[in-house]
Amino acid sequence: MKFLLEAEFTLSAEIPREKLKDFESIIEEANKTIFTKGVGKGVKAPKVIDYKIFNEHLHVTIESGEGVRAHVALLRLRKFLNEVLGKTFRMGVRKLVIKKYQITEIPLPFEPIADIMVPFANINIKNAKADLSLRSEELSIDYIEKGAVDRLIKLVQQKVERQRYAGKDEYKREIWFTGEKETYYDKDPAVELENWGWIRRTHAKAQFVYGPQFAVLVNVLKELFIETIYNPLGFVEMIFPKFEPWDVPKRSGHAESIYPDAYFVMTPKNATPEAWEDVMDHFKVTREIDIKTIETRLESIGILSFAQCPPFWQYLEGKTLALESLPLKVYDWSGPTYRYEKGGTAGLARVEEFHRIETLWVGTPVQVKELGLAVRKKFTEFFAKVLDLEFKLMWVTPWWMAQQGEIGIIEEEELVVGTVDYDFYLPFRGDRETSEWLEVQNCSIIGEKYPKAFTVKPQKGELWSGCAGGSFQRFIVAFLSQKGFDTKNWPNKVAEKFNEKIKKIKEIKFL
Description:
- There is one protein chain.
- Strands 7, 10, 15, 16, 17, 18, 19, 20 and 22 form a nine-stranded mixed beta sheet that branches. The protein has a six-stranded antiparallel beta sheet with strand order 2-3-1-4-6-5.
- It has two domains: 2-164, Alpha-Beta Plaits (2-Layer Sandwich), CATH 3.30.70.1920; 170-238 and 315-502, Bira Bifunctional Protein, Domain 2 (BirA Bifunctional Protein, domain 2).
- Helix 6 packs across helix 14 (492-502).
- 31% of the residues lie in helices and 27% in strands.
- The protein is an alpha+beta fold.
């Protein structure tokens, strides 16, 4: 790669005319000293190839190769000038502005299939190489200091690489299967549940009101979940927020890609009744809501919970955990998670307001790996033995790992950083070989990602985390799709608890 950068320093005072010649030696010293640090043998160091001084302005042109990139050299030069000018002229740098920045010959994995766009720059691609011309009016020096240019180059390469895996967010490999089991139903259970009035659709997309009978089945599953998984492993219940201010997805990394899937949260810019009087009057007269006007008076403050575990980390943020508190083992069954399903919704298997059961553990790397394996085994025991369901364990490799050749090997006695999905057979979708199975639960080792992002430290050593997520809607879809509604075909533990509780429920009948 080649870098050519033009920038302008505004000094705190004008350099005396008789001292202008001294400036030439300052630039020469910079080229010989500060720009050569960290440059390996045979690698061309950055260099100021031109400079101009007029009044209190210093305009420089820096050229560099891959070793020390031009924007890094520019920041070094600012620090150097502040030191030298302070000693020599008793002045410093008041302001620094990028005037022009061109990055050429960025290597790409292959010739792009389609055009790509990136922020802050115009892009031209030819022969699997990209040239960037940064729009200096958009790219502030603050962005430069925070590593924006390096991330921009990486983004170009990632966007091209992603085209090879278009539509493939992840790759799955089967690592375990229960074997085929007898099924007793071949229809979508959501249809029957609606017909019976156990659930009813709302005015919102893919949202339901869940009636008393459905709630009974949910609570039966919850009790069995706690008895089989949480109590034996020592997990305790917590309640996580279901709203994430923007700082949470920013730290968790979801801010890179959340927008097409998010439910956004807006609040009034002005909350006085007077500011909204016309909107209220509009409804009083027309009985219609003036959405267009409302939209102009709101500000975005965050999103509704997308993954459920990120809001938890605000509880530990900035803290140092005592070793005696580790491993921390918690679960949250307290409310809904929201995702905009742009690909469409389907019954209870794909809804936009779903009730996620989040299982989360934090500890040393050894503790987190051991707990990950224990949680995975308990989930397997619960689904295979307690619910007697047919499913597969699938090792998941995200596309970005697959393209690097990281296939994600998982061994029986060790769960490495990565994810295992529990995919269930749904008879109403067709035969086992060609139909789509339903992912109901996952189990992941996240590593240091969240502790690092939220500045959480252990008293000693490293801190890792793991989590497992599923929704009771999908639990019930998988269960009823295979077992049907006749409790005689249900496993004993489920049938006994359900039959005992359902006796106390008065049926709601509609005329």
